[in-house]
TrEMBL record:
Family: Belongs to the glycosyltransferase 31 family.
Organism: Dendroctonus ponderosae
One MF term in the entry's GO annotations: hexosyltransferase activity
Keyword vocabulary terms for this entry: Glycoprotein, Glycosyltransferase, Golgi apparatus, Membrane, Signal-anchor, Transferase, Transmembrane, Transmembrane helix
Location in the cell: Golgi apparatus membrane
One Pfam family it belongs to: Galactosyl_T
Membrane topology: Single-pass type II membrane protein
The protein, known as: Hexosyltransferase
GO CC term (a single one): Golgi membrane
Enzyme class: transferase
Length: 290
């Protein structure tokens, strides 16, 4: 763990969920959206959360990466898909113990996400909601998948015996006020674990404490055709290769792109309407909340 982990006050602590082998993704994030420690006058902290690996060479490289960048947190569980719930719960524990007294917000984000940090900061400042906030791309009416070959297999019915998941937020990225991290963590400690991290923490546990999740259409969890003007209006975009994240970061700051995008604001509104009312309405697993 970084020696100065959450030592200083921060407006926002970002915890990026990364795999041990995700060296290139982390490198690009440090060069692009994760490079600034102050945005719009607010202090930002960024850390990468990893589990354990059995590969000796990868572990050696992680150690070198940690010594160079001082932003790696590696916990004592194997880094597997089925351990994502443990990984995110560990994030909540670290934030609650080390950061909550010094930070207003926590952002959980995957390392294949492009983050428009100024847009997020602007959104949080506008809302000015420093408690009971759990925000992202909300999913409603989603049904458990009972086919064992599916990536989102819910497991045997005794793990989740109901026909519909509670409304939850896509685990690709979500933001919460500091108090929510502690509330969800404490609830999780007394709630049978479920391997689908987003369903468990932002759905089952959030519902158990009576927390209303906040849908924000500027968080996206699916791939969008490359459109820099659209990206400028969004907070997150999913399924981006590291090199494309670099390209997006450079392009949306280009003066020519800025001028072009001023003329395309209405296009963004049309895109968002289509995404929320047509495209996502046809998805059987994930239906966006209105």
């Amino acid at each position: 763990m970084p020696k100065d982990f959450c030592d200083k006050p921060s407006f926002l602590v970002i915890v990026c969920i990364s795999s041990p082998s995700g060296f290139e993704a982390r490198r690009v994030i440090r060069k692009t959206w994760g490079r600034d420690r102050s945005v719009m006058g607010h202090n930002i902290s960024l850390y990468f959360l990893l589990g354990q690996t059995t590969d000796i060479d990868i572990q050696k490289n992680i150690t070198e990466e940690y010594l160079l960048n001082n932003d790696i947190v590696q916990e004592s569980f194997y880094d597997t898909y089925n351990n994502l719930t443990l990984k995110s719960a560990m994030m909540l524990k670290l934030f609650t113990l080390k950061c909550q007294s010094k930070a207003k917000y926590l952002l959980k984000i995957d390392d294949d996400i492009y983050l428009n940090l100024p847009k997020l900061i602007d959104d949080l400042m506008t809302r000015n909601q420093t408690d009971n906030l759990l925000m992202g791309s909300a999913i409603c009416g989603s049904r458990p998948i009972r086919s064992s070959g599916d990536k989102w297999y819910a497991g045997p019915s005794y793990l989740f015996p109901y026909d519909i998941y509670p409304s939850y937020i896509s685990g690709t990225s979500y933001c919460m006020s500091g108090d929510v991290a502690e509330k969800i963590l404490n609830t999780a400690l007394n709630t049978p674990i479920f391997h689908l991290e987003d369903v468990y923490l932002t759905g089952i546990c959030a519902k158990k404490i009576g927390l209303n999740i906040t849908h924000n259409g500027r968080f996206t969890f699916h791939y969008l055709k490359q459109n820099f003007c659209l990206y400028k209006q969004l907070i997150t975009v999913h399924y981006q290769e590291p090199e494309l994240i670099q390209q997006v970061f450079d392009s949306i700051r280009d003066a020519d792109v800025e001028e072009k995008c001023r003329k395309e604001d209405q296009i963004f509104l049309v895109h968002r309407w289509l995404i929320e009312n047509v495209f996502m309405a046809n998805k059987t697993r994930k239906i966006r909340c209105s």
